[in-house]
Task: structure prediction
Amino acid sequence: MFAYINGKIADKSNNYVVIDAGGVGYKIFMSTKALESLNEIGMTQKVYTYYYVREDNISLYGFLSNEELRMFELLLSVSGIGAKSALAILSEITPSSFALAVITSDDSKLVKIPGIGKKTAARMILELKDKLKTETAIEKNEKIETAIREDNKDSEAVSALQVLGYTNKEIEKALEKIDITGMSVEEIIKKALTLLSS
Result:
């Protein structure tokens, strides 16, 4: 319903911001990490939004980047994870670290997040990896497949970016602009995310 809201910050709390856009104050729930990065009250701010509707709850959730929004949507697709849990996870881990943890089945990184136990971490990895396999099967790309065969770092970075919802064509364009020599997988993902969101 709302792709983003751009307006003046009217109020800030420990779990939401109120943005005045066109004389309407939108109460938008955000992660603590995102709230800390907001502009000051009275300044203009653009927030990407997710319109959350349940029988007993209609709320707006906000994010400072499309990557955070994509990660939030992914987390909601995991059984047993609601909007508040997804926001709590976003407060603790970046989209690039999260995607890498899923791809490498690194549940130790996920269980460090408050409220995430071994079972939930395993379920997140299982469900999101399955989702990735389905999407990859639908859309194949020769250059991406060559990169996956030739370089394991490339392979992990590609898979992590796919977890965050990017298509093979988008990933290929971004990776073509990056010299990955001496870079860690997470550095490659972060650089690619910067290019993909610009």
